[in-house]
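cron nightly-structures :: item 1 of 1
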Amino acid sequence: MPIFSPDRHACAPSYVKLTKQPITGGTYRPLADNEDSNACAPSALSGHHGSKLYTQKSAIYAISDNASVFISKVDAPHLPETADNKSDNGAFGEAGNDNIHFTPLSAEIQLAQTDERPLMQAFEVCKQAARTTTKALSTAGHAVAKAAKTTGHAIHTAATAVKNAWHTFINFKAVQLIIKFFKKAYGFWKKRMRFSYAFYAIVFTLLTSAEVIFLQWGMYSEPKYDKNTEVSETTKILKSVAGQVTKFVSQMWLEQKYQFLLSLFALAIIYLVFIFVTNRFWIATLLFGILFTIYGTANNIKMGLRNEPIIPADLSFVTGGDSGKLLSFIPKESQSFVNGAATVLVWFICCCVIFFIIDGRRSFIYCSWKKPFASIKNFAGTLTRIVVAIASIALLCSYSWNLSIPGSWAYSFAGSLGYTPSLFDTKIDAKTNGPATTFLSLTKTKVMEKPKDYNHDALLQIAEKYSQQATSINNNRKNNLTDSTVIMILSETFSDPTRIPGISFSTDPIPNIHAIKGATTSGLMLSSGYGGGTANMEYQALTGLSLSNFDDSLIIPFQQLVPNQKNPYAFNQIWNNRYGTDGSDAVHPYYQSMYLRNVDYKKFGFSHLRTLDSTPAIKYKDTIDYSPYVSDEEAYKNIIDLIERQKHPQFLQLSTMQNHMPYTGWYIDNEFAGADTSAGLSADEHQNLETYTKGLSLTDQATASFLNELNQINKPITVIFYGDHLPSIYSTTDQDAENYTTLHETDYFIWSNTASASSGTKLNPSSTAYTSPNYFMSLAASHMNAKVSPYLALLTQLQEQIPAASRIAAAVGGISSGDTTYLNASGNQITKKSLNKGTKQLLHDYELVQYDMTAGKGYLNDTDFTKVQ
């Protein structure tokens, strides 16, 4: 029976007739459905007899009637019907059953069907994927090429349009006239003259001299006279700022002192460095003028605020990102000076720019980096520029590094021009030798002069000597320092103003602290600073080291020394040794990088330095009225918080900011404006004094409340309270050298709460009336009846022999201003020569210890010299 299968060959025309060819000896097996794609192939026409060829108008197809395959009979067990059988059967339907005869396949045929078909299918998949990928890449390539072509065409079109518009524009007659004008002008421009080197030399000399005079001008202030004092006009002229500057210049003719030329030489070296490095005279002139105008202005402001000039250590404020904070310290009376300097600087910049434009000489030294060997002239110029640039830098470095070293070429050269270093007091040094010379002489810091007998054996002997002294002291003491919390409070510029000659008020500004001082250990502290020096007092109080032992070139240890030390010692480490890193903490209600405190306190071993910008920051930071600084009341709250948070005793350091200058009428209700009865002061002095005194009154009240709160805490607590220095607002008093010591004395007291065994203790006033900050820890140990370390034993004995010592400028009673100021128990100055042999030996031992701890080899680190027994 004929079989019609239109679905079997989809590529064949309709009505295809298929016939079955009977062959004996075998059976017919229908082809698989997946072989349909090959049914129409030409190869199918040669495999059978019954093929039919149909022709139509559209196409020719060769149709095979071989719808089944012949399989010879073999003896094999009957195999079950496979999935292929089922699918074939399903494909043909009932009409195909007549042609299907199931006969078992041989093992070889089954293996071929199992292995070859998946491999062929995988190959076809890979082949198809490759074709698809190739086609996709080709399509993408064509798309990119087309886009690039389109973009290029658009750019070309736009460029052509711009070009045409430009040609149209320049073809206008008016534009042509302008072009012709500038072409002619350019010809003259190329022929403009080059300024001569003689003109450069004149500008160089005038500008350098002007900057020296400007710097020196900033070192002086107009004197103030009492209304009842008669002063001649000649005296007023000579003591005025103009008169003092004139004297500084003219003394090279009148007194054969050449400090003006010395300052001129220092600035000239710096000017030459700018010229030879930039190789552009007017650019170098611009940089030099801007630098020293800003330096002179800042120097004048610092002299007014801190009574000292700018030194290299101050540059850490700029590099540390604190320059913006320093601007907040500029007082109102300096604002007009700043505005005037800014105006002059603007005009100066304009002049330099104009001269740079009209000067035909571009290079100060002819040279070319692009073609250095183009000619002998160019090669010589390039080589000369390199040599002089290196030589100028080397000269500046050598001069500044050797200026403070006796016997060096720079020291000898400066000495021949009248150089007399007074680095112990930078104000005196800058006024005498010029601020530029002072600045350069401090660029290389020497910590201390090495004692002649400094060696390992000498330090071991000192450690043993004062270990025995500590044992002797501790035999009479029952308490331990670390059993109590000790709070060291540096109160910014705190000092009784009524002790200053000419200052008086109708009411006591600090009655509470006067009462506290009368009931506990107290007295006056000799400060090395006036108007500034907070960090120095802080350093001496924390370490027990004296500024008077350091070299004169070491001005601020916090900035010049501590950051370079590996393991600097501080008293907080006594508590750290017992309680770990939580044994000490610090609070400063300002910014952490001022004076590099963030670096120094970490080196000292404090667990934190909590400031406005630290992590964690201080919690309490409110201000009073218009004051920009955190109040003392808020600062004390941060200390209370630390005490309540910690279970064990600790060492706490607080440096306040409330009474920091400038004093610009911050307080709304200032009763001291009416209580000021001071005489002989200017209006500015009165305003500063009244604002400052109001701040002291607020500190007085806050301190009393703080101590009352400490009395409510059931923990032994001792407070060391001291003012760091006086503010520089006593300009009338400062003019009298007899008042120097008074202007360096601040108030201090040591107090213990009711939970402390030393509550109510007051040491003999004869031994505590005067002291210096390096003795505070040993005095506190005496006040607390606490055991000491060998180091504290040394300080205890030294304080008994020399109650106060500091490096200040005090020329009183025949004592030269270069000597350390020593005070006896009565507050009178004594000379080092007048000390007995035992006291001199104590001082020498102290110097050996300080050298070993700061600049030496640290022999004492291997001993128990700083450990409490």
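cron nightly-structures :: done
Residues 107-170 form the longest helix (64 residues).
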